[in-house]
Amino acid sequence: MKSPGNVWVVDDDRSIRWVLEKALSSAGMKTAMFESADDLIKRLDKEQPDAIVSDIRMPGMDGLALLNHIQAINPDMPIIIMTAHSDLDSAVASYRGGAFEYLPKPFDVDDAVALVRRAVEHAYERRIQSPEVVDDTTAEIIGEAPAMQEVFRAIGRLSQSNITVLINGDSGTGKELVAHALHKHSPRAEHPFIPLNMAAIPKDLIESELFGHEKGAFTGAAAARRGRFEQADGGTLFLDEIGDMPADTQTRLLRVLADGEFYRVGGHTPVKVDVRIIAATHQNLESLVKEGRFREDLFHRLNVIRIHIPRLSQRREDIPRLARHFLARSAEELSVEPKQLKAETEQFICDLPWPGNVRQLENTCRWLTVMASGREVLVSDLPPELLDQQDQGLALNGNWEQLLRNWADQQLTNGRKTILNEAVPQFERAMIEVALKHTAGRKRDASELLGWGRNTLTRKIKELGMEDSSGDEDEDD
Ligand SMILES: Nc1ncnc2c1ncn2[C@@H]1O[C@H](COP(=O)(O)OP(=O)(O)OP(=O)(O)O)[C@@H](O)[C@H]1O
């Protein structure tokens, strides 16, 4: 019993679309043709094909970006990339990104049909072999904004590697989701992904949590226990909020990364593990290094590849899709009809500041699913704190203090500590940058604008690691 197949083709060249549509339909397959990758992605919201055939070069999103996008949301979707011989490098890249096959142009129509048929059968077999692939959609990452496309591209590029990755981004931007995607698209995918949040564990338990302990290692250690490192053997250990790792643990971690082995707390036999580390932080690790709060050598070990996840307010174009996704998910969880945002509600939420990022949007959608009375969500149905936020936003022009209060409030609500360590350097950096802009980079004049002595400004610039951006260094000293 074989599925005839539902195949989507995307190519900006009308004649290729025409040829493939004819050939695939004659072979009994259902087809849909798209002029651009963006059109195809829009349709993916509603329906999923069995396979996709995509040109490599297209205006707008190209074939490889599409490949990365789809790989991130549905790693099992077979994709055939069409490419001219001259684009062999890109074709190789498409393999690494996880394409099913590539089809060199110009192609023989029968070969093309045979290839597509194989892709469809492959998809079909995977589906019957592993019903749990449906579960994969829990890790769907939504992001059409250019800044998120960068993130998808990085996931694609890293897909065959075991390299250490450092993910930067504010709380709730999706760092764990991206770490999970990196794992799922790595050679370690069949092994465990173990997340551990440094900020969420009391300091004196971190070591035993990471490395495990032997029976009787400390009061309360009634039995021996494997730590996260051992649990993650062969797989990936995700260390969230690495900036909060205590100094002693940093030293131990560094040693494990260098030696590939460690001792359980209270243990005397070394334990060998093979673990890929993905670390994440909302803090500026370089600043922590400068302040002596994070080991420089550990920082360099972790900072091999860096991925930055933008704030939700820097990718507002994704808000409507994210909201639909979360409304659908909470409706499913609660077995109710999904709520729909009225156009003005959608517009309203697109303009909000979202200091809690995607997580805040997700929580809002869950709240709406339970609390909004009708099927359609009106602006007045939104949780009161969001309506307040908008008032604050309107009154904001000039009211940076209110923004700062919101930020501090949010940080403390999220359980953060020592928030001045992050806020003060940011504040100073902003003031210095603006003053230097007004003086075309002249520090002496900028120090006057700020009300600091020249030496203080020079020292601050150094401490804040702003030397590259501070403009002309050769002025009169
Ligand atoms: N682009 C996205 N598409 C779909 N869901 C997302 C996206 N980004 C984040 N989410 C969801 O938002 C929630 C928060 O994401 P996640 O836990 O990955 O954030 P985080 O940056 O690790 O947060 P924290 O730093 O507070 O731990 C999760 O439920 C996640 O599934």
From TrEMBL:
Pfam families: AAA_lid_14, HTH_8, Response_reg, Sigma54_activat. It comes from Nitrincola tibetensis. GO terms for biological process: regulation of DNA-templated transcription; regulation of nitrogen utilization. GO terms for molecular function: ATP binding; phosphorelay response regulator activity; sequence-specific DNA binding. The keyword Transcription regulation applies. The keyword Transcription applies. This is DNA-binding transcriptional regulator NtrC. Residues 141-370 form the Sigma-54 factor interaction domain. The modification 4-aspartylphosphate is found at residue 55. Residues 6-120 form the Response regulatory domain. It is found in: Cytoplasm. GO terms for cellular component: cytoplasm. Member of the two-component regulatory system NtrB/NtrC, which controls expression of the nitrogen-regulated (ntr) genes in response to nitrogen limitation. Phosphorylated NtrC binds directly to DNA and stimulates the formation of open promoter-sigma54-RNA polymerase complexes. Its main location: cytoplasm. Keywords: Activator, ATP-binding, Cytoplasm, DNA-binding, Nitrogen fixation, Nucleotide-binding, Phosphoprotein, Repressor, Transcription, Transcription regulation, Two-component regulatory system.
